[in-house]
Write a structure and sequence with these properties.
The complex is a heterodimer of chains A (190) and B (91). Helices cover 25% and strands 32% of the residues of chain A. A nine-stranded mixed β-sheet of chain A has the order 6-1-2-3-4-5-7-9-8, with helices on both faces. With 91 residues, chain B is mainly α. Helix content of chain B is 71%, strand content 2%. Chain B contains four helices and one strand. The termini of chain B are far apart. The chains are: A alpha+beta (190), B mainly alpha (91). At the A-B interface, helix 1, strand 5, helix 2, strand 7 and helix 3 of A face helix 1, strand 1, helix 2 and helix 4 of B.
Chain lengths: 190, 91
């Protein structure tokens, strides 16, 4: 599954094309080469971790792994879990669960400003579209770090509060109605 | 205004200056996370599990029941391994 999406180049104030495609070794190499040095330089909560294993794209049928690529560089990544989680809003119905979503360090809020905007929104919108494709009608769930709560609240996901089974990260879920509203704004071309 | 422009205006407005990360804050450790994810997928061979269930319960339960138990068991094992890897990820 892939899609053509639009993101925003902040410095040039220009809408540009990007590709949303399955993660390949190339994207993991981008992560090692371009993302990791910046993440190591930051004050990430998990900076004490030891790096022990070389990355490779896993064969995982329950998961879909995507990269958003622009200018031949990985600008964002997302892992979806497509067949295990159940809705809290709609009595156990299936949903797409966002297992992991991150935008490149240079696209995050910072004093100098991000290089590209709309990367994360494009990824989330694509996840909603996948939920529709999988006949979950746009239902989407995720656990968000506190620094990302504002975004998901603004997207009108329902905040179920801290989840003890996920290290007290807040669980958010998108209703079918809100998903339909969001998708109606988008222009995904496959 | 085109759909494309409308979507971009909406996306820029909704993103504002927010962080957008979801899932655990695995930072620079994506590779390790993916490795654990792969391990959680390959943890239990369904054919072996079905063989054991068939041998022990084949005369009591139907094939559909055994398939269901095998799938649920696989799912539960994956979930537990995944949770365990996530716990260690932010420990």
């Amino acid at each position: 599954m892939k899609a053509s999406v639009k993101i925003f180049h902040v410095k040039n104030q220009q809408v540009v094309n990007a590709d949303l495609i399955p993660i390949s070794d190339k994207h993991l190499a981008d992560f090692e080469t371009f993302w990791k040095p910046r993440l190591q330089a930051s004050d990430e909560q998990d900076s004490h971790w030891e790096w022990t294993k070389k990355a490779s794209v896993p064969r995982a049928p329950s998961y879909e792994l995507y990269a958003l690529e622009c200018d031949r560089i990985t600008q964002g990544m997302m892992i979806l879990e497509i067949d295990r989680y159940r809705s809290r809003l709609e009595n156990g119905r299936g949903l797409v669960y966002v297992d992991f979503l991150a935008v490149a360090p240079w696209n995050r809020p910072s004093p100098e400003g991000p290089m590209y905007k709309a990367v994360g929104t494009a990824l989330i919108t694509f996840a909603i579209q996948r939920s529709i494709d999988l006949e979950y009608k746009g239902r989407l769930g995720l656990h968000a770090l506190s620094k990302a709560h504002g975004f998901y609240k603004k997207l009108q996901l329902v905040d179920f509060g801290p989840d003890p089974s996920k290290q007290n990260l807040n669980y958010f879920e998108l209703s079918v109605k809100t998903a339909t509203d969001i998708i109606s704004k988008s222009d995904f071309s496959r | 205004m085109s759909t494309e422009q409308n979507w971009m205006n909406w996306a820029l407005q909704v993103e504002d200056d927010f962080e957008i990360s979801a899932g655990l804050d695995i930072g620079e450790h994506l590779g390790e996370y993916l490795t654990q994810l792969a391990e959680s997928q390959n943890c239990l061979n369904k054919e072996k599990l079905m063989a054991i269930l068939q041998e022990e319960l084949g005369s009591v339960l139907s094939q559909d029941d055994l398939e269901f138990i095998a799938s649920e068991t696989q799912s539960l094992v994956r979930e537990r391994i995944h949770e365990k890897s996530q716990s260690s990820a932010i420990a």
